[in-house]
Amino acid sequence: MDFLPPIAYDLDAAQELLRQSRRVVVLTGAGISTDSGIPDFRGPEGLWTKDPEAEKLANISVYRRDPDVRKRAWRRRLESSMWSRRPNAGHQALVDLQRSGRLSLLITQNIDGLHRAAGTDPALLVEAHGNVREIVCLSCDRRFPTAEIAQRVDNGEEDPSCEMCDGILKPAVVFFGENLDPRDLERSFAASESCDLFVAVGTSLAVYPINETVTMAREAGARIVIINGEPTMFDRIADVVLRTSISVVLPALVEDLPPA
Ligand code: ZN
What is the distance in A from the centroid of ligand 1 to the CA of 163? Predict the structure, then answer.
């Protein structure tokens, strides 16, 4: 594959595209949350790939059959620092974009819940890999607030089960070996096919099928802006590539953005 230079690298060009746009789809990945202190879990350089134990704890078939794995997973979750993290200026900037009336959908691959915590409208948000706010029963599909189950683990239940049906509980996040929710995919694809600007933020765009949204948007005639610390395989089809700090560039991008 030949990597042609993108049309422009500059912030001004991205700002202009944003001003002209009316229907923006934003796709975010781990890079937007690293400035909140959350490590990249799923990227090629991510925590899970460097930590086979962590990957095992998030493999659905292992999780289903091995109570010891579940006990270790619950203990690890309690110790996880993800609970105390706060949204950063990058998350906030996307709320400002929403307030300008341009956001048609925010798709995130992150499970940290920080877009919602920042104030993104849940109706305009697809958390494609789920979120850590809720725990789901693998048998009856009931959902429980994570805090409630965490409290039970804290009280000594090593492998808490569903209070309704005794089924196995797991965080409402997509594990290895599980499929994305088809409704989420459908919404993401539909929005991407009808947007006039697609902005990818902090994602290497390596995860299929969510990365299909970029090509769909492009083929439908949308302009493409990619903001990421490293090159992505879609840079060559982007109108603007900004390879810089997300929590710095996103606020600059939406600054003085007039209502749509
Ligand atoms: Zn149940």
Answer: 7
